Structures are given as structure tokens and as C-alpha cells.
Amino acid sequence: MMLVQRTLLLILCCAVYVTVSSQGETLLSYGDSTHGEITNRNYEIEYSVYAEAGDVVVITMTPEDDDEFRYPGILLLDDNYDVVAEAFDTYSVTLFHDVKQSANYYILATRNDGRSGEGEGEFLLTLDRARQLKSGQDICDITTSEINKHYAIRVKGKFDVWYQFNDGDFRPEVTINAIKLRGNGLDSRMALTGPSLERGSIGATVRGGEQVLLIVEISQRTWDWSDNKTANFGLRLETGEPADDVAISIVASSTINIRSGPGTQFDIVGSFKSGGQENAFARNEDGSWLKTEVGWVFGNLVEPCGEVMRLPKAE
Q1: Each residue of 160-179: pLDDT tens digit?
Q2: Selection from 71, 56, 63 nearest residue 127 by Cα
Q3: Strand partners for 305
């Protein structure tokens, strides 16, 4: 009888262990933000994300109590739990990673020196993906003084990024950067900046014939930082090669429905969040409906960046 009781106790213990393990992992999607807390007992908070090859993952961790927790760190692990990227810094840290293989990945929010590190406190973790900027395609976007915008360009040979300030409360600067192999943030290569920056271009020539990944960052100038400001701007990448697809960027003025066809009689297949940005690749006959990768949106409810009628008519 005693042997049976011990066996049952062992089974119950194992069952509890599996349950706690599955609850401890939080699945994130691009655009998600989540709060957590680093303590001396729990100094690695685990999250998971599915990323596809070609995605440029952007993960930012900012302590919410900088008096006690000043040294955040991020580890990105593949599905074998091997570290593929890491970033550590003071106060705020951002990790960029060019995904080579579609798979599940794990994010560890931690602190410098892990178990032996110092400082406890709450943090905000944000998961995003750098938007791919393709040659010949116009985009319009909105940035704030608190959140930088990032765009991935894959270029070889000569290229230029054209920028235009449309309106807003502050004048962003434009930088072109490489991803640091280790460490926080980006390695700045060139900048387009100034207190009265209206428009301009920034570019270079990539030598050697190899395609490289660069990150275009739109941000507030660090020496002129202020809260609660926004800026509207436009971007265009030019490489001298024909664009693969004609497309324009559209911004939703409110949360709207995405439909399976160009009209309200078609089924709703998704939603387009207020302030969100998507590419439109085609239009209906008069340009009143625009087609995205997911489906169709009513043109009067979005702000297009570029001429709608230059889009090809959908067949």
C-alpha cells in the first residue's frame, strides 16, 4: 500500500510540473507588447514567437522602474534553444535579427549577468518586425517621439532612400544602419538630419556584388528630444532597377473591415487597425477599392501615399 501511495504522489508531481512549464511560456505576435518583472528568483522571462525566413525581428525591452532595474538584456534562441542573437545595455535595449529559417523562436527577457546580476523591477517588452522597403514603392507612415520606425532594405550596388516630411510636431532624422552582430541597437552608417529637414535623399554604393541588409530608422534627434509628438513622412527606395510590383502605402484612418472583394457585399476576411500601414497592389475600375495582401479595403477610409490610379486594375 505504501508503494502505491508513493507512486501516485510521483505521478501527481510530474503532472503539476508539466502544467506550470506550459503556462510559463507566452506566445507573442508582431505588434504585441507585454509587461513582466525581473526578480532575483525569476531573472529570465520566456516568450515564444513564430518568425518566417526574411523577417527582420525587432525586440525592445524598457524597464518601467529605472531606479532599481537599469541593465536589461534580451536573448533570442532558435527551436533548438541555441542563442542566435543577444543584446544588453543600460536602461533600454533593442535587439535586431535577420531570420534565416522559418521556425519557432524563444525570447528571454533578462538582465546583465543573469543570476549574478543586480537590480529587480518591471519592464515592457515589445515585439515588432521591420517593414520591407522595396525599390520603386512609395510609403507614407507616422512616427512618434517615443517610438522609432524601422524599415529593412536589401540592396546591392548603388541605392538611394528619398525622404519627405509631410506634417507634424517634430522633424525626424533618417539614418541608415547595419545590424550589430552582438550588442544593443544598430551600427549607424550615415544620416540625413537637421532642425528644418523637409526632404532629401541618403544613399551609397554597396561594393562587391553581394546583397546586404540595412535598416532605415526614422527617429527624433537625440539632442532635441521631447514627449508626445508625432510626424507624418514619406519614404521611397530607388536602386535603378525596375520595381518588382507597383504598390503604394495606405494608412487606415480608423479600424476598418477587409473584404474578400471590392464591395460591401463581399465577406469580411480581416480588419485593418486604425493607424496601421499596409501596401495596396491593385484597384478596382475607378480606384474606390484597393487590394492588399489580405483582401480589399474601401479607399475613402484610408490615406494613400502615392497615386491610386497608377496601381494596376485587378483582373
Answers
A1: 999 989 888 889 999 999 99
A2: 56
A3: 249
Go through 73-91 and write b for each residue having 16 or more CB atoms within 10 A of its CB, e for each that does not.
bbbbbbeeeeebbbbbbee
Express each pLDDT in 206-247 by its tens digit. Answer: 998 899 999 999 998 876 667 788 888 888 898 877 666 677
| pTM metric for this prediction | 0.75
Each as own residue / partner, the long-range contacts of residues 79-83 (CB below 8 Å, 24 or more positions apart, any chain) are: 79/103, 79/104, 79/105, 79/106, 81/106
Is the separation of the CB atoms in 247 and 137 below 8 Å? Answer: yes
Residue type, 55: D
The grid coordinates of residue 254 equal 480608423
Whether 238 and 160 have beta carbons less than 8 Å apart is answered as yes
Between CA 209 and CA 212 the distance in angstroms is 9
The residues facing 105 across adjacent strands are: 49
DSSP conformation letters of 85-109: EEEE-SS-EEEEEE--S-EEEEEEE
For 200: left if phi > 0, alpha if psi spans -120 to 50, otherwise beta; the answer is left
Among the listed residues 120, 126, 124, 116, the one whose alpha carbon sits nearest the alpha carbon of residue 95: 126
> Containing H/E element for 57?
strand 56-63
